[in-house]
């Protein structure tokens, strides 16, 4: 059985609950309760017609923690029951999004500086600034998100001063993952601030920050876990490098033509192995997590995934045009090539924001069908 919202999900808004079963059932009773255990009246609390999927409208809910419990009769007449928890919190969802964007965007900029050390100095300087800003943004968002968890557990803002509740949150899976990410981000910051430490300290820091997604994300429930987590790390690292490099690459187009052409050629060589790894790992995870093709359209996770895939497809088309048309013209000294390349990269940047947002939402707001 799966649900939407998924068990344990944090959502910015919710208008209905969707229950999906392996076979048609008669839903005999549904109850919704808040974090204090108080039952909330539902517009419809049963569905006696046999169905494998039931959508139940929900009343307008205030931010907080909720649990939905259900009882049903299976096709063979046996009673079955279950339930799931979800959190409605726009602010927490926004903080999760900022943390994810900071890690992926800042980490990708660091990878650009490491893998293209001879890029024009203005581009390298911008990459360092982006890595620093992204890491700082994520370091600010992570403790604020944990603080909101403490507030919800305690039922009020004063609970944020309760050390016992902080201990509960920090020792939870979410708290432990956030601590791993925060430690990684501190290393990433150190590597950004001290260029000689960029590889020795910054790259392990980025790996730790990305590992936090694998420790708590949807891959943690897949078996074998190590393989799913490895695929996610490869996918996120490739995505971060590709998208985090776009703004520095745009700055490269402002350099003298020979320097710009050399930087673009070096990036193309790195992308030749990074992008296939990104796509292969991502495709494997899609098949693993989605399970059934129809889930791509009838679940929130599937729709967000389709939006991300559409953005990546357009990015691939633009990147191919850059590699096959504009970069060769730039290398031949075409005076108009730099401007056209800059326009294409600006379009990629706009799409990159959408792809990064969809990726962050997939890791924080939506649960996979499996």
From TrEMBL:
One function term, GO molecular function aspect: copper ion binding
Entry GO terms, CC: plasma membrane
Transmembrane segments: 93-116, 137-157, 177-194, 201-220, 226-250, 271-289, 301-319, 349-367
Listed InterPro entries: CopC/D (IPR032694), CopC_dom (IPR007348), Cu-R_CopD_dom (IPR008457), Cu-Rt/internalin_Ig-like (IPR014755), Ig_E-set (IPR014756)
Residue ranges annotated for the CopC domain, each copy included: 2-88
Listed Gene3D superfamilies: 2.60.40.1220
SUPFAM superfamilies the UniProt entry points to: E set domains (SSF81296)
Coiled-coil intervals, chain numbering: none
Localization of this protein: Cell membrane
Membrane-topology descriptor: Multi-pass membrane protein
Keywords associated with the record: Cell membrane, Copper, Membrane, Metal-binding, Signal, Transmembrane, Transmembrane helix
GO BP: any one term: copper ion transport
Name under which the protein is recorded: YcnJ protein
Upper taxonomic lineage: Eukaryota, Sar, Alveolata, Dinophyceae, Suessiales
